[in-house]
Structures are given as C-alpha cells and as structure tokens.
C-alpha cells in the first residue's frame, strides 16, 4: 500500500485530494490547523490525522515521524493568503510577508528535507500546490503571489537536483473554497475543488515528468 502525506487537508483542495487518494487505496497522513475538521476527514478516509501548523518545526517533525520511511508522495498544499483584506504592496507589512513566506515557502521546503531520504529510496513524488498568482500581476495578490513564485522556483531547482523523485508544481485554478472567498473573490462562481483534485490525480497515477502543470490542462488532456 502506498502512503501519502497531505498538508492542509481539512478542507478545499487538500480534503478533495485526500478523498481521491483514499478511494485509490492509499494510506494517508493528513495535517491542518483545524483539529475538528481534520478529524472528520480522517474518519472519512481512514487517514492518520496530526493537527498543527506547518510553520511549527515540532509539528513538521511529528508529520515526518508519522510518515516514516515508507512515504511515496508528499503534497504541500497548506498555505496562507497573508493579511486579509489583501493589501497592495505599498502597504504590505514586512512582518506579514515574512509570515506568509514561512508558511508557503519555508515550511514546504523544510518538510521536503525531512522526508526526502525516504522519497529517494522509494522513487516517490512531491506535489507542491502553487497558483496563477505566481506568474500573473494581480493587484493585492503581491505577497501571496511572491511566496508561490518562490515555491515554484524551489520546485524547479529540486526537480533538477533530484532525478529519482518526481517533482510537480501545480496551479489548481480558481476553486470554490474558503480561501478564495477570504480573498474577496466570487468563490461561488468557481468550480468545486474536486475537479482540480481529479485533474491533479493524473500526475500521481500517470507519474508524469517533473514540471509545472495547470489542472485545467490536465483535465483537458486526452
């Protein structure tokens, strides 16, 4: 049985990916800050739930211990928008940007470092969830977008450095999630995260080459 570690799995895309992999028979370790919501996902999917904040080194260590040496897939999905309402760069506090990078960039890298030996041994995979905000100039999305751009470049270099591990960085597109709603967007008009999860599952099931992917392109591919 294959094992996946999914961060930010209590709702949205993380929960949808957990459900998708559970239906495929995967063993799951899941994390999120909302312990009650995470517990519900664990009850549904049979996952091992470890609530906490990925920015906390002790929590990351607990996740790595739970995954053990038999990890086949790491999904870095947990992220933060930063301050909301989302400010323009002219008024974005440096401390808030540092906190955003701590969650969206430093935590994923630290978690990768913690589990990479096992992933190398099992020729596993890493899926880093990014955003179109990493490559587009959306007003007020500067802090979040900069953090996702950094995560994309880390992924790009990691793919070059780790040829035995599949490294994917993927833009799921707009989804009907609490995060999109918190950003002030019309989340109700966006598709459900289950659509993006099904598209991203093609990366895992097909073990596509390392690289950047868009869920919309994966869904449209024959």
UniProtKB/TrEMBL annotation:
It comes from Actinomadura coerulea. Transmembrane segments: none annotated. Belongs to the short-chain dehydrogenases/reductases (SDR) family. GO terms for cellular component: membrane. Keywords: Oxidoreductase. GO terms for molecular function: oxidoreductase activity. This is NAD(P)-dependent dehydrogenase (Short-subunit alcohol dehydrogenase family). Pfam families: adh_short. InterPro entries: NAD(P)-bd_dom_sf, Sc_DH/Rdtase_CS, SDR_fam. The keyword Oxidoreductase applies. CDD domains: SDR_c.
